[in-house]
Amino acid sequence: MEAISGNRGTEVRSDCFIRIVPDDEPGIRIRLKSKVKSLYGQSIHQLVQEELNFFGIRDATVEIEDSGALPYVIAARVEAAVRQITGTGQEFLLPELPQNRYSTVRDKLRRSRLYIPGNNPKLIINAGLYHSDAIILDLEDSVSPEKKPEARILVRNALRNNDMMGIELMVRINQLPLGLQDLEMVARQPLNLILIPKCESAETVLTVRAKIEECRDTGEGPVWLMPIIESAQGLRNAYEIAEATPAVAALAIGLEDYLADIGAERTHGAEESFYARSVVVNAARAAGIQPIDSVFSDFGDNEQLLRVAANSKKMGFDGMGCIHPGQINVIHEAFNPTFPEIEKAKTIVMAYGKAAAEGLGVVAVGSKMIDLPVMKRAQTTIEKAVTTGLIPKEWREIQHE
User: Fold this and answer.
1) How far apart are CA 34 and CA 41, in angstroms?
2) What is the mean pLDDT of residues 173-193?
3) Helix (H), strand (E), coil (C) string for 16-70
4) In this structure, are 309 and 160 located in the same domain?
5) 8 A C-beta contact, residue 32 and residue 41
6) Are 272 and 264 spatial neighbours (Cβ–Cβ below 8 Å)?
7) pTM of the model
8) What is the rounded average pLDDT of the residues 272-284?
9) Bridging pattern class, strands 16-22 and 3-6
10) Longest Cα–Cα distance in the chain
11) Domain ends where: 288, 314, 335?
12) Does residue 91 fall inside a structural domain?
C-alpha cells in the first residue's frame, strides 16, 4: 500500500509531493528531489525522519518532490500520507508562532475578507501581506472532495506556523456533518472566526458552537461565528440564525448558491438579489450584528466592483468578500466613510453634545432635526473613520464627552 499527498507540477510553488511506500526492508529511505537540496536537504531529511518516528513508521521508502515548501507544509503533507496508511488520529505539531495567538472583538472592522484556498500553500504563505481586514482559509468550495483531509492538516499548520501579520483569522468549514471534522482539526489553533456555509437553521449554529467549546480549552480567546445564507430556506430563517448565540458576530450572504437555489441569474444590476440582501441586512441589524455582502466574482473589473461595493454600503452592509488581493483596496475605498460623511458626523456629534449639556433631546443642524438614532449613526461613522486612520483617535474621546 502506498500513500500520497500534496501537489506537484511546473505551476506548483511552495508545496511538495509526498509518496510513502511501507517496506519489508528495515529502515527509512528518503529520496528527495529539490532545487534547494544542497541548502536544505539535510533539514528536510531530519524533519521527515522525526515525523515518521513520531508516528511509529520504521520501515518505508519516502519520495519527496519539493517545490520550495516551508517546514510546516512538508510536515502537513507527511502527516496526511501517514494517516492514509495508519488511520492514526495523532497530530504532529511544530511549535506555534506566539504572534498568531490573538483575540478580536465581536464588532471588529470587517470591510474585506480574503478567501484563500485551504490546500494551496503558495497563496497561504503571503496572505498576511495583502492587508485585508480578515483572511479566510477555505476548506469548502475551493478544495476538491478528495483533497479535504489533507487540506485540514495544512490549514491547521498554517494557523499555527504561518505569520498572519495580526489579521483576523477565519476558517470556512464544510457543511455539517463534515464541518465537524474540520473543527476537530482547527478549533484549538490560533483562530478568531468560523464561517458556517449554507446555514439554514439556528440549530446548525448551535451545533458548531458546541463543537468549538468541546475542542477549545477554557480561557482561550473567543471564536466568533459568521453563518452564510445561501438558500431560500436559510433566508427564511435568517433572523433566528443571526440571534442563535452571542458568538454570532456577523451574518453573510452567498449569492452564487442562493441564486442557483431559487433559479435566478446573477446580473450586474443585482435586482434579482435585492430582496435577499435586504433581508440579510435587516436580520443582522435586528440581532445587533454585522451584515456582510457576497463576493464579486469578476476580479478583473474593479470599476464595476467599486460600484457594487458602494451600493452594498448604501444598502447597509458593513463589508464583502474578496476572491483576489486586487479587490481589497477597492472594497476598502467603497466602505470607508467619505470625508463629507465624516465632516457631517463631526457636526452632528458636536451639536448633539452641546444640546445634551443644555438638557435638550433634539437639536437642529441646518434644516434637519437630529435625535438620538441620528447621533448613533454619526458616532458609528466617526468610529470607523478613527479605526481606518482617516481622523485622529482623539475623536473617539471627543464624541463621548
Assistant:
1) 8
2) 96
3) EEEEEEECCCCCEEEEEECCCHHHHHHHHHHHHHHHHHHCCCCCEEEEEEECCCC
4) yes
5) yes
6) yes
7) 0.90
8) 96
9) antiparallel
10) 90
11) 335
12) no
